[in-house]
Every structure is written in C-alpha cells, then in structure tokens.
Design brief:
By secondary structure, the chain is α/β, with parallel strands linked by helices. The chain folds into two domains: 192 residues, Rossmann fold; 101 residues, Magnesium chelatase subunit I, C-Terminal domain (Helicase, Ruva Protein, domain 3, Orthogonal Bundle). Helix content is 48%, strand content 16%. The chain contains 14 helices and eleven strands. The strands form four sheets. It has a five-stranded parallel β-sheet. The chain has a two-stranded antiparallel ribbon with strand order 3-4. It has a two-stranded antiparallel ribbon with strand order 6-7. Helix 2 packs across helix 3 and helix 11 crosses helix 12. The longest helix has 17 residues. The radius of gyration is 21 Å and the shape is globular. 37% of the residues are buried.
C-alpha cells in the first residue's frame, strides 16, 4: 500500500516541480555559472528559510536575488547596511501628519517578498536585531501595531569575509535564524569570459516573470508532503547530535575543537532543506544523498569553534565533513 502511495506522490511531485526547470533557465539567462548559488536560493525559497551569503565583492550575490525576484514577479527591496543605519530605516516608523493631526505609520523596505540585506555585518547590533522579529515571526511591530509580512517572505543577507574593520559580526542568535549559509566562490575561467562578453554586449539580459508569488506559496505546501522515512529522520538527528557529543560517534578528536553544537533549529532546517532538495530533483521522497547535499549549508554557521580549532586552522566545514563521513548512513 505504502509503495503505491509513494508512486502516486512521486508522480505528483514530478508534475508540481516542473516550474523549477523554467525558473532555473530564466535565472541562468542573467547569471553565468554559480549553479550552487541558484540551487540554494531555490532551496531557501521552497523551504521557507532565509539565506546568508558570504563571498568577496562582485560575485553576483545582489544580482542573483534581484533576478529571482524578477522571475517570480515579486516585490523586491534592497537595504544597504551602513554603520549609521537605524532600525526605523529597515522596519518603518510613525510620522506625524499635520493634515490629519495624527500619527501615521510609514512602512519600511522590509515589507517586500524578497529583502536583500546587503553587507549586513556593516551595521551595529541594534539594526541587525531589528530583523529578528521579521525573520522568525514573519511580522513587524511599529508602535503598538503589528503587521504581517507578505508571503512569500525571504531575507537574503550578504557579508564580506575579507573585511574586518568597521564590521559587526552577527551574533549566534541571529546566525541561527538563517536556514542556509552559502559560501560563494569565484567563477571558472570559461564562465568569466562569458561574463565579460555579456557585460560588453549592448544590452544586458533581464529575467522575465515566469511565476507568481502565490505559486511559490502553493509549492511550499507540496514540499512539506515530500516523504521522509524514519531512518532518514534518525540520520538527521545523528548528524546534529554528532556536533554536540562527537565522542559518542567515535569522533573524540573533535571534542576539543567544537565550542557548541548545532541547535534543534538545525534539525528542522536540515529536514526541510532535504525535502526542498528532493523536490528540486523531481523526487517525492528524501534519500540520504539529499541530506548530505545540504548539510554543509545548514550547519556551517551553527557549529562554534574553540580557540584550539582556530589555532589548528580547522574550519566548521572540515568538522562537518568528518561528521558526515563518520555517521552511519541508513
């Protein structure tokens, strides 16, 4: 009986996920290469999670989310984070109207479907924390009123890893709000030649709307229906627990390198991202490879390193790789 249901579900997911190829093609018109970035943007969009992008300037981070917003025909806003930015500049504020002789609420740029928080680590903690309520509860409180944010709502924040002066590192509580942390790398030589050619041609390509925001909301409901076996659930819990008690998984050498392990939010995010990845691959069920494919993005910002790890030049990615290799695959 279950195998028939899985087959029906698989056929349905294949039908429902047909838009993924169209959306990817539309984005590839504008963005050369960066397949990993585009794929993770789609995972965040379908799994209803926010994305933190880390990479040096000029790697199409801003262009990627702008293109996604154009392809989905959604409202896009970009907030440039600077040291003098105020929470009211992000959320909105109450202004006095002399005409009506009362205070009126002016909504800020956070009221959009896609919000790009550009160089988020350039603003102090009070501005970064202004985004916390919006990211977690999907609502904003201005004065005494609370406003729901539009659906879908996706925050994509960028940060520059090479600059330390004049930056305010994101606190752990805020990092945990991001479902994925994606490290963007340089394009290949051939891709860079294509980028030069596109930039020097008369007209830069633009993405056309191929989806509506309500299509994304509907697709998210379908993603939740992707089948996840109990064995996969246990595998996800084992991966997360191995960051907390590595000695239980034969990884005693990591005990002195991990300051704190991943939170339960990591388990939820890993499960949702795996389902979204299976959906993108046009499958109605999750396999261990799906979990492994998204594990680094979900966990790299949730595993804290000790001074010993930094002294040994160990990165959270290397620790996650060791855990993935050690934990038994179902």
């Amino acid at each position: 009986m279950e195998s028939i249901n899985i087959k029906e579900l698989n056929d349905r997911i294949q039908r429902e996920s047909s838009f993924v190829d169209i959306l990817t093609m539309e984005m590839n018109k504008v963005i050369v290469g960066q397949k990993h970035l585009v794929e993770n943007l789609l995972i965040g969009l379908l799994a209803n999670g926010h994305i933190l992008l880390e990479g040096v300037p000029g790697l199409a981070k801003t262009l990627a989310i702008n293109t996604l917003a154009s392809a989905v025909d959604a409202k896009f806003s970009r907030i440039q984070f600077t040291p003098d930015l105020l929470p009211a500049d992000v959320l909105g504020t109450m202004i006095y109207s002399q005409k009506n002789e009362q205070f009126q609420i002016r909504k800020g740029p956070v009221f959009a479907n896609f919000v790009l928080a550009d160089e988020i680590n350039r603003s102090p903690a009070k501005v970064q924390s202004a985004l916390l309520e919006a990211m977690q509860e999907r609502q904003v409180t201005i004065g005494e009123e609370t406003f729901r944010l539009p659906e879908p709502f996706l925050v994509m924040a960028t940060q520059n890893p090479i600059e330390q002066e004049g930056t305010y590192p994101l606190p752990e509580a805020q990092l945990d709000r991001f479902m994925l942390k994606v490290v963007v790398t340089y394009p290949k030589k051939e891709e860079e030649r294509m980028i030069i050619r596109m930039s020097n041609s008369g007209e830069f390509p633009k993405a056309c709307p191929v989806l509506r925001p309500e299509d994304i909301v509907r697709a998210r409901e379908v993603v939740k229906e992707v089948y996840m076996d109990e064995k996969i659930e246990r595998y996800i819990v084992d991966l997360v627990y191995a960051t907390r008690t590595p000695q239980d998984y034969g990884l005693g050498n990591l005990s002195g390198l991990i300051a704190y392990g991943a939170s339960p939010r990591a388990s939820i995010s890993l499960a949702m991202a795996s389902k979204a990845y299976a959906f993108i691959k046009r499958r109605g069920y999750v396999i261990p490879e799906d979990v492994r494919a998204v594990c680094h993005e979900v966990m790299r910002h949730r595993v804290g390193l000790t001074y010993e790890a930094e002294a040994e030049n160990m990165t959270s990615d290397q620790i996650i790789s060791e855990i993935i290799n050690a934990v038994e695959v179902p």
